Every structure is written in C-alpha cells, then in structure tokens.
Amino acid sequence: MISRMKEGLGTLRKKDSPLEAQLKEATSRENWGVPNTTLQAIAQATSNMEDCDLIMSFLWKILQEKKDKEWRRVVKTLSLIEMIVKHGSERAIQETQ
Q1: Are 19 and 51 in contact (CB under 8 A)?
Q2: In 3D, which of 87, 70, 90, 67 has the Cα closest to residue 27?
Q3: 42 within 8 A of 22, measured Cβ to Cβ
Q4: Cellular component per GO (predicted)?
Q5: pLDDT tens digits, residue range 49-80?
Q6: Which residues contact 78 (CB under 8 A, 6 or more apart)?
Q7: Maximum separation of any 2 CA atoms in the chain, in Å
Q8: How far apart are alpha carbons 67 and 48 in whole angstroms?
Q9: Which domains does the chain have, with CATH numbers?
Q10: pTM of the complete model
Q11: Which residues contact 39 (CB under 8 A, 6 or more apart)?
C-alpha cells in the first residue's frame, strides 16, 4: 500500500519546465562540463522577466549552499553566471553586481 502511495506522489509532482531542466543540467553534481549551447540558452532566457527571476533565484540558492561536497555545483554556477554577464539581459547583469 505504501509503495502505491509513493508511486501516486511521483505522478503528482510538478514536471520541470524546459528551463528548469536546463538549470539542473547546467548546475549538476556530475563531473563533466555543460554544453555552451545550454549555457547560452539560459543566458538568453533572462530576457523574459519571469524566467530571469527563476534563473537568478535558482543560482543564488546554489551559491548559498554551505556543503563542501557541493563545490562542483558552485563552480558550474559561477560559469553560468559568467555566461549570463556576457550574453544575458541588463536586468540579470545588474542583479549579479
């Protein structure tokens, strides 16, 4: 019975938007890099105000993590912020300052 309840909860969980999936991929714990096309797509998404808010809150949340084991996510997040500064919207650039 409990296993059926867990399955039901899994289907009720909100699906990630394509942007959220890209953010998770770009800031994953995996030991390989992220394609520049993914980073550029995220940077271009900052031109939409709602997407910009989502992206920036996601990035700041990762940077506030205090676990030593999360260093790879922090490095990937900083790389994404660098791409946003180069190719993102003015609003996103101002928020990084």
Answers
A1: yes
A2: 70
A3: yes
A4: clathrin vesicle coat; endosome; plasma membrane
A5: 999 999 999 999 999 988 878 889 999 999 99
A6: 63
A7: 52
A8: 31
A9: 17-96 (1.25.40.90)
A10: 0.80
A11: 26, 79, 80, 83
